[in-house]
Amino acid sequence: MYKLIGIDMDGTLLNSKHTLSEENKSAIEKAREVGLSVVITTGRPLSGVETVLESLEMNREDDYIILYNGALILRASDRKILSESRISLDEVKKLEDYAAIVGVQMHIVTENACISACENKYGRYEAELNGMNFRVQNYNELPKTTKIYKVMFSEESEVLKERMSDVTNPLISSYETSMSAPFYVDFLKKGVNKGHGIKWLSQHIDVKQSQVICIGDAGNDLSMIRYASLGVAMGNASLELRKHADYITLSNDENGVAHVIQRFALGSEAM
After folding, report:
1. Would you name the residues annotated as active-site residues?
2. Tell me: the pLDDT tens digits for 8-19?
3. Which of 34, 143, 179, 218 is least surrounded by CB atoms within 10 angstroms?
4. Which residues of 99-183 form beta strands (DSSP E)?
């Protein structure tokens, strides 16, 4: 019987208009009523999930949030940090130099802002999507205490794929990388990803791997899809994710999350 469901937000829980459907909301409420832990597992910062958490009334002591692709895990009731992994300013400088060499844009995501060393439309988009400030600032001017959870390289999809194709590069291979969108490559500390976050939380609340469902649509969801006993790809998911999924549900515009919950967590296949 499943006990924990990890759900990605963009392209998964939210539809193409970035809104939460009543069908998905109702299914999650029913799952929680029968004792399942439902965990938003996203690349977004806290500010980018507050509205959804409020809509789902995820404010209990046993509610948790996985942010920045697993770099930050919080208890929802008081926002207490349970697990945290950050990138140093020295690392940011090395990644900035590499971004310049390969010709892509870069910004960093802190606890309250997206920061780029120059004007960056992708950084502005990330900030607007998550209700954060966007700042143009030299990274060398940032305080050493700045909490940097992830670095993002960005460019038009085909250009980004071409310029980031050298996966054997020692610098790239020393980080955990994934594509959270066709125009983003996320960099986190090595070993930190959504799968790591789900595994850590599962152990924290004493849930076995065999009792975990994870649902996602993009490259940054692959690690948790692989970890889960039931890894689910959305109908709109990338081809790579679909290859590794145990089950393919409906798209995010067809309430694919609700479908999974009804079938595997509340229906006959939940037993």
Report:
1. 8
2. 999 999 999 999
3. 143
4. 105-110, 113-116, 133-136, 148-154, 175-181
